[in-house]
Amino acid sequence: MTTAELLAAARAALVGVPKEGLGEERSSRWRGDRIIRVGEAWHLGVLLLTDDQALATAEVLRAADPGRRGYTAESARERAARRQMALRGGFAEGEVAHVGWSVINVDAVDAGGSSGPLASIDGIPHVRWSNTGAYMHLDTYLSERISLIQGF
User: Fold this and answer.
1) What's the burial of 52, exposed, middle or buried (CB within 10 Å: 0-12/13-18/19+)?
2) Are strands 47-49 and 54-56 parallel, antiparallel or unpaired?
3) With 0-12 CB in 10 A as exposed, 13-18 as middle and 19+ as buried, what is 66?
4) In this structure, are residues 140 and 134 in contact, taking their beta carbons and an 8 Å threshold?
5) 33 strand-pairing partners
6) pLDDT over 90 (residue 45)
7) Model pTM greater than 0.85?
8) What does the alpha-carbon distance between residue 152 and residue 144 come to, in Å, rounded to a whole number?
9) Which of 21, 83, 86, 134, by CA, is between 20 and 30 Å from 67?
C-alpha cells in the first residue's frame, strides 16, 4: 500500500474518535500574544492526521491559567506562559493544543523520498518515531497507534 492509502485507511478507522486542536501563534497590539485554533487532527504519536493532510507533531500544550506559582526553572515559567497563550487564544481550560507542526508531503514519500518523520524505504512507507529511533513500517505504526487511541 502507498502512504496515501495507509493514511486514508487510518482516517476511516478513526471516524468517531475525538480530535485535538491545532494551534498557531499570533500576536497583535490589542490582543497580545496568543495561540489560536486553526484546525483539528487525530494525534498518532509523531503524526497528526487531519481530514486531508498529514502533519509532523511538534510542541504539545494543555491550555491552562498559570495562576500564581513560584518556578524553580525559567523553562517551567516559559511553558506556563505558553499554556496561558493557548487559553487566551480560545482553547478551553485543559484542552490540548498542537503548535509548531509541519505539513508532510505524502506525494514525495510515495515517490520514493521522505518528508518529516515519513520515508519510503525500498518502496515501503516507514515512519521514524523519534529523532534517534529506527524506522518502522508505517502500517504497523498506524495499527498500534489506532489501537491505543481506540482503547483496544
Assistant:
1) exposed
2) antiparallel
3) middle
4) no
5) 27
6) yes
7) yes
8) 10
9) 21
